[in-house]
Amino acid sequence: MTKKIKISMSGQILIAMVLGIIVGLTFKSFSSNLKIVGDIFIKMIQMGIILLVMGQVIEAVGNIDLGQFGRMIRQTVIIFFTSSILAALWGAIMVIVFKPGLGISIKGLSDNNIKVGQSMSFSKVISDFFPSNIFESMSKGSIVQVIVFSIVFGIALSAFCHSTNEFQLLDILKQFNKVILKMISLIMTIAPIGIFALIASAIGKLGIKVIIPMMKYLIIYGFATITYLVFWILCITLVTKLNFIYLIKNMWDMSLMALATTSSAVTFPTELKDTKEKLGVKDKVAQIVLSLGMSLNSNGSAMHMSITIITIAQIYGIKYDLQTYMYIVLLATLASLANAVVPGAALVSLAIVVPQMGLPVESIALFAGVDWFVGMLRTILNVDSDVFSSILVAHKNDGIDTKVFYESN
User: Fold this and answer.
1) Major location, coarse class (predicted)?
2) Is the pLDDT of residue 213 over 70?
3) Which of 162, 242, 360, 397 is 20 to 30 Å apart from 25, CA to CA?
4) C-alpha angle 317/46/142, rounded to 5°?
5) Residues 56-65: pLDDT tens digits?
6) Closest by alpha carbon to 348, among 356, 339, 357?
């Protein structure tokens, strides 16, 4: 009896990309007709984005017991937000300096939907974070306003549930979120077809020259990830005085798991076990910080979105001012709160943030060819930053067993 070979979603997307390139180069006139298939795929992803973002953020915040929002959890949330915004900022700096989007020709690719935002005052930018009508924000797809509403709603939900001991609404929300994630997962099963159509139509118009420069984007993204991890390790060793060689060795298995699976959820059991048994982080810290980190701390996602938005802008020859770059950093940080735990999460994330800057959603197709490598980089930074955060919190709360840390090797 022959055993069926199961190809991962990333593998299917990679195959689809290769086939799309071949068809686009071989059947140029025919491939242009495939664009409608790709457009339908993108719209199917977008139709659930607002509900996905709202549900994930409300559930993450609503799960926190504000009545027991003690010193440790306050420290955790501060570290999460600070590290995510620094990751997004570092990614933006790398792209601004090295400009991976320059030299990528998009002549022939749709650019008539580009809306370059006009410069606004700082007070206007801040005030626009807050919605006056959440339904209007949802209909316009204003993600930042939706996230701000979701955070406030989540705080109110948490206060209500934990003060009345009635969790029915939170439980219903969790079930609803599972349905939305299932819907996105079902849509992502046709991702290879959608990516094939988008790549084939783009290659048919532009040729192979549009794909090859993506390697520069990937190299810069990889460099940004590695240097940010080094920054994290330096912070940990300086603050805690732990040996950095032991730190790297004790995190090796979980880091390899993150790279191999490209999934934070799949890596979580190994991450939790090694954090306690190799790094010496005590249960009371590891369980809380790592569990919260799954939804509230996504350094890799924040960096990915920041880098990609600016790269796309460079591809289309759009230049932003400093204020807009800072808005992008904040947008990427807030959007990372809604990091989707589904196959092809990188594509889902881009569908959230790209339209917010008035950039063509079709540009997402250009990044499909490096999706698997992007997933590796996103995941290792997401996972390792959660662990680093738990070490910092443990250090502040006498939660590290140094004997375990040094004797586990």
Assistant:
1) membrane
2) no
3) 360
4) 70
5) 778 877 877 7
6) 339
